[in-house]
Amino acid sequence: MKKFLIALGASTMLVSTTSALLIGGTAVQAATVKPQYGTFGFDESGMDRSVAPGDDFYAYANGAWAKNTPIPPDRSNFGMFTVLDELSTSRSRAILDELAKSPGTKAGDFYASFMDEKAVDAAGIAPLKPAIAGIKAVTSKAALASKFAELRKEGVNSPFIVYVGQDDKYPEQYIVSAAQGGLGMPDRDYYLKTDAKIVETRAAYQAFVAKLLDLAGEPDAAARAAAIVGFETELAKVHWTRIDSRDSDKTYNKWTRADFDKTAPGFDWDAFLKAAGVDGQKSYLVAQPSAFTGTARVLADTPLPVLKDYLLVNTINAYAPYLSKPFVDADFAFNQTTLSGTPQNSARWKRGVNLVKDNIGEDLGKAYVDRYFTPETKAAADALVKNVIAAMGARLNKLEWMAPETKAKALEKLAAFTPKIGYPTKWRDYSALEIKRGDLVGNVRRANIFEWQRGLNKLGKPLDRSEWFMTPMEINAYANPVMNEIVFPAAILQPPFFDPNADPAVNYGGIGAVIGHELSHHFDDQGRKYDMHGALVDWWTPEDVKRFTALTDKVVKQYDGYEPLPGMHVQGALTLGENMADLAGLTVAYDAYKMSLGGKEAPVIDGMTGDQRFYLGWAQVWRRNYREANLRQRLLTDPHSPSIERVSIVRNMDPFYKAYDPKAGSKLYLAPADRIRVW
Q1: Which of 22, 114, 431, 498 could join 352 via S-S bond, C-beta 3.0 to 4.6 A?
Q2: Are 403 and 290 in the same domain?
Q3: Residue 33 confidence (pLDDT)
């Protein structure tokens, strides 16, 4: 895909106050069709007008929705992302049901192998017997190291995560990267914290490990499970925190092969790297060096039988969703109910759709795009992206705290920017992947090995800038700093995020702010470290960094003050990048919206001004109800703040105060001097 170029000095804001959309450089009037939500793209019935917007803007915009919207029993949370996910999943099912009727398509056959529940139940654990026998045959730690790598290729958890990615400092080159891994629970905190809920979860995890051993017919399950959890606890002690692990400078550590033996002795690196197919490389990127040192030591100190049991449980855990009902139920009870509070497993067809999407997503994605994503929607989304990029350029031009030489490089970076909208220009080739009806575990295994080999095949090859890391069916988006790109899959470009028939204010407050969010990640506390070529390089002056850090420290402090659950605060340092992206994204989207008006005033609709509708568009996309366990897990591990706190970013926006006139003393009110302004 060509890099996206834009003339930053010229205005491209040609979208009018009606539902006109920029297509091919010309304002084109959309058909007069009622928007999906409300009269102008916002669901007013979801508001709670008894709440003052200056006290709780989330409740004002979404309070009635939150009160009246139950979480479905197969969900840990429910909101606008989930609404679109349900739609995407149903649409994907329609495609797969058709494909499954005629054997011979990979997506259809994969789906059919999962949907044959009777055959899966009859097989029990038999499909895993060869893998289990291989683990039991291990007689040395060298053989165990090889087995770790062999099973890692199949998607089994391992103390060391190895993959092929871009070299952050030389982004045109692929390199083997390695990171800490091996925990069965989501984060080190689940092993080390001592509050009652965590202790309760830890006990449930140990019972789950014992249950998997028992289901596999293993004796002494309770004692062996205790030893496994003890081993993982030692791993947790040497793991880096999520805050440290998001630092691009700290996690860029280039090792030679000899450095593994020197810095992380006690583990058979020859056996591991050879079995993984990544031996013989000139260099490797290691994300958490001290964790590698500590993990190698823990592995050396742990008896072989415990390590074999650990690998056995990890293997069963990885494949449990594709085994018979007792394994499926045990997996769900811990990984979904205990960790996230979800009371009921999803319908089998939903799990089957997700299996195909996660393993051979682009095989399904091409059919999805052909059926559900129109060229008109893509053109309209492309236009909105172009407008937001131009608004970001205008913001950069006006910055007072950034040195002129740094600002010039920032504008060069923006001009070299690549947006990817809807779907890939080049689809993945799955012809070498064998999918068999009646062999579910084998299909999962071969799909994981295929993906592993696809990564290895990149080594020594030119960078593929057309590659996507999400499928078109995803309700999500991402920024990739080493590619200097943002990516928006087709499925998120729908109401309430984006509706070509909605009021532009709502579209800019919704998808416009999300686009700005992803765009601004390239200038957040980590993204700013990458230049126009995607290289991790120091291109800011020390004074710029000092001024920027003073601003980001304020963001950390503001979010540290939020307490979504009693005794549990948002982690300002962990969520910094996402909170900054919300701050910048909403700011830039507002500018783009105002520029789209061409100097005219927006009409008043249903008694609401354009600015009021803009902020309601932002609040609407973050409607979400959480189960307590899910919210607790997010506060421990998620770099995103919960929805209420994401909406509350409006308290830093000067136009919000003009739109809703909150007074001093209101809960969200900040004096002008206290409002955080970065971009």
Answers
A1: 114
A2: no
A3: 82
What does each C-alpha distance from 279 to 111, 218, 285, 595 come to in angstroms? 35, 35, 13, 54
The pLDDT of residue 19 is above 80: no
Looking up residue 531, the CATH number of its domain turns out to be 3.40.390.10
Three-state DSSP class for residue 334: helix
> In this structure, is the dihedral angle defined by the CA atoms of residues 591, 50, 73 and 205, taken in order, positive or negative?
positive
Q: Are residues 402 and 525 in the same domain?
A: yes
The β-bridge relationship of strands 418-422 and 160-167 is unpaired
Tell me how far apart the alpha carbons of residues 215 and 208 are, in angstroms, rounded to a whole number. 10
Neighbours of 664 (CB within 10 A): 8
Across the beta sheet with 478-480, the strand order is: 418-422, 485-489, 478-480
Cα–Cα nearest to 162, from 272, 249, 244, 319: 272
Q: Give the residue-averaged pLDDT of 122-140.
A: 98
What is the domain extent for residue 193? 141-346
pLDDT tens for residues 235-293?
999 999 999 999 999 999 999 999 999 999 999 999 999 999 999 999 999 999 999 99
- What number is the average pLDDT over the span 293-300? 98
Q: What is the C-alpha to C-alpha distance for residues 355 and 109, in angstroms, rounded to an integer? A: 12
Amino acid making up residue 592: A
418 shares its domain with 564:
yes
Are 337 and 384 in a shared domain? Answer: no
Domains: count for the chain: 2
229 located within any domain: yes
